[in-house]
């Protein structure tokens, strides 16, 4: 089979698609997670909470597929990353899965009994289902930035030398909280366009203001810690961007401060952190002007910018090793084969637009603000 | 390597996969039954069919949600617990999983929201289309996951690359059109349809026995008996089809299902019952039907079916050949330009997986003697008694379903489901498809042992480098979580069935059409 794109190009495309997937996940399921985390605080009575839940009820299931697709696409395009990260962050991954499993059942089962205690328990399950994944994803990204304690042997079998508690350091807790603040902000912004004016919306705006300020602050502190903390790695010597995917054939070394190097080499990348800082400000402006869509656009910018910042800072590294730099996974040594990358690209180019098209159709069919009147009268509502 | 880690990882995978597959078959079948019911509604415009569709739709929803939730675990478990497997075959195995997400999961998950929340917002035809897309999505996801699983059973279109120390795609079309995957797909979805049809039959029978919602129940049973009969026939006939595919690709599995220790002269007999004796390598008290196995397995009277002992000898040869390939790879690790090693590797690369079998006994397979190699060759035989009895149980249930739905089909026309003995059988049948389906999966996966990927990667090499306490933590965690959810799910199902199809907002006309009748 003739492959019209060279290996290097395909790897860069798949690096970008990895970003698209993560951002797609954060933009869609991210607001469901944020809304879940905000639920007990913005909704006081059962009716108010049902208003909040039904603002995301028809969509969360489709959105969650971004997460599943993320897993599948990393498996297909970056099998090393899939193998090393999910087995390395084993117990953290379990926490995420358990929390995410709670979420669908909470949505569905909460409404089946009118009992207040029953519903209150599921509300907290929804909170856990939103807060825990948001926190752990952020902590995981923090760990990716500082490197994970793994090494590969000559069969490319990975051994991991960390623990669950070892994942939580001041820096990674900060990135975890940043992730929570960012997604809570995004969730609150979704509520601003999706539910009727009223006490819930007022509380959501209050939450959004706090979250926006926190997002900016934590992002700035995080940036400072990356700059001052001496994080970073580099590849020494010749890089064979078309070479076989075998980390042991390349030579990565620790290079303090290297995570800022890309911004000097490719100044356009500065766009990412700028977007991450301007986004929350736009969101604040949207809140002040009572423009829900402006608010949402701001949080979408923030989410995109912050996630892209991580990718741009680390390129070409994807998952560095903190104990054996040689084992570090990069764009050039951790992908699947040339042919698989190409086939998967074709599949993605065909199906991703189709997915986006019918998602938009569904959004349109189920558009409009949810009101307390709907909550009281619509029998299909949770 | 720590065998406890491997056994626990297998236990966890079996638990989570089998639990996941409690919900999937009902989703696969019920989604298409909803399409049928809703089509009748769209064509006839009779409100009772809307009530029927919405009622089964509610049960579908309770079930669907757990299928999706537990599917999350499956998507990541290859990475969390089978990291070396994920590295070793991810280049091939990851693709169908990703395509499954793009093509199937998005479709079903996005549309299911509209299916539940769009009744008042969509036209009848639009809503039917949405239900159809949900059914299509769920069934497409089965297609892709079975392409992935089929590749584990029959790894075509891939080769080992010593530079990356893993299997890589050589021909994607072969992976896609893998005959084992095709047969498994049809067999598995048909089993799901049988499961859903039996469920609808059973729940409707409960209503008829109690004289409640009889108009809904009778109509549902009509749909279920026709749908069930077609599916039950397909599951058995196409089960045979996967037996046929086995003979080319998985001879050992077939031989152990049949407890056929020695090659028989063609055409081979089928063993109906017997008592396989592993130590004596023979089957006691065997009752055999002449010719049948040869005909099923080879579609001819002259084709030979290999026995276990002959297949073990062949494995022994392949281990010897694999050691040469292994040696070549070790040399290539030190010097990528070693031409002699490259040539040796190319000549023996298809057997490299067999050398890995020895890693159970020694770190370096090149140090093995003939006795150890023969021992490893005998490892390629799966657990014969388990295979033998599971298969017979599954096949008996399969024929049972055909008989049951044939009876149902007859009852539908002869007595409109008025016979109480038949209704009692229908209730009793409810759990049986699940037994057959879970048994079928155990059969398929035990039958592949000791391999994770047949002839390519032994299961014991595939696990992640985890510690025993870590895996225990997640096994206990998943068991507690899944157990709680199972209890809640069953309670909600029962509550929804008790409540019946009535809906408070239903237009009165529709409700009056099926007012509860007194017990007959």
TrEMBL record, chain A:
Membrane topology designation: Multi-pass membrane protein
InterPro entries for this protein: Cyt-d_oxidase_su2
EC assignment: 1.10.3.-
Enzyme class: oxidoreductase
Signal peptide bounds: none
Residues annotated as transmembrane: 12-42, 87-105, 126-150, 162-185, 206-227, 268-289, 296-319, 339-363
Subcellular location: Cell membrane
Annotated GO MF terms: electron transfer activity; metal ion binding; oxidoreductase activity, acting on diphenols and related substances as donors, oxygen as acceptor
Keywords recorded for this protein, A-Z: Cell membrane, Electron transport, Heme, Iron, Membrane, Metal-binding, Oxidoreductase, Transmembrane, Transmembrane helix, Transport
One GO-annotated biological process of the protein: aerobic electron transport chain
Entry keyword annotation includes NADP: no
Pfam families assigned: Cyt_bd_oxida_II
GO cellular component, one term: plasma membrane
Family: Belongs to the cytochrome ubiquinol oxidase subunit 2 family.
Name of this chain's protein: Cytochrome d ubiquinol oxidase subunit II
Organism this protein belongs to: Novosphingobium sediminicola
